[in-house]
Amino acid sequence: MFTHYIMQLLKVKPKANLVASPQLLRFPLCKLTSVAKGPARQELMTSLGYKEESMLNSCFSRLKESIKTMAESDLTIVNRIYVNYSNDINSSFIANSTEKFGVQVEKVGFNFPKAAISYINRWVGTGTYKRITDILDAGDINKDTMMIIVNAVHFKGTWESPFDYRLTKLTKFRHIDGRISRVPMMTRTESFAYIAADDYKFLSMKFASWRAILTIVLPKTPQGLPEFLERIDKNPNYITSIVKRMPTTPVRIFIPRFKIKTYVDWTGFLQELGITTIFSRTSSGLSAILKNDSETKNIALSRVKQKLFIQVDEMGVARFTRNPNRNLGPPKVPLFIDVPEFVADRPFYFQITLDFENARYEMFTGVYYGPEPEKVNKI
User: Fold this and answer.
1) Whose CA is closest to 105, among 274, 282, 269, 286?
2) pTM to 2 decimals?
3) What CATH number is given for 165-256+336-371 in this structure?
4) Most buried among 14, 188, 207, 365, by the most CB within 10 A?
């Protein structure tokens, strides 16, 4: 079910570069599911696609080591559940949350909204080395706020085999509306997982982080991306079915260097998904968050915010400082001559996944419509 709403999200702002992380949002939802009761639990389990308790327990644990590897170089995450400061909060809800669900729980005084917003924004800025700032807006917290989810992510992937930045050239990019602009286009000729199918070209490239893969889907024409989004909205398993049969073959690739910043308020999307009870101020099904003798009888989720910053360039997290006087020798000349080309000079769809033998986990899902002034696209 998440796939449908990710597609709706990507279509909310046509022609805008967007990225979202359904997987990182699942972790705090799994945490809430672990204490939810009645209709709240049923709604969460259904939306998460879980049928058994064991599936809930593996929500984070299966990805834990891979995410830890990514966090050592490429990935910065602040994933938190903030609850209103109170002695009524059950200590067991706070304990071991990061270890079990990849999300930290913290108490903050929402009775002072401006101070709470400032504190959370400052903490997120510090936790992401200022790459993510102002995740909360004025008004996101008021004196009636009980609990919020804040999810801030920066990813700058380091390639298993970096691009040679000396080969990057300004190249034409054809926009969906017919405009042409110029982008710094990176290039490599190597063996990649690649296939052309159904008027699309599919390419998968490995990051240095364990199991991390970038998959790009390139439509045949600059106007083909919306149609592709409709296709995967109707058939969520379409990409996975293609990826499973992609052969490894020599390909000459041209990929634009790009940055995407997106700010998503998931509150309404989750309710459209069917997760409504946990937002109820009178009967949220989350009473287990509170102590048994609590004077407070209900605690509900008020808001869910996610802010992401994705960077794709030649190196990723740079291993050395570029020195124009450093002699790197001539650029490598590829040994392949007659090979297919993958030229991402038009709008495309992409996924950054953690690939296991029997499953793919979408860490990031996005669309790139071409160069635009550096800004944060809000949804």
Assistant:
1) 286
2) 0.90
3) 2.30.39.10
4) 365
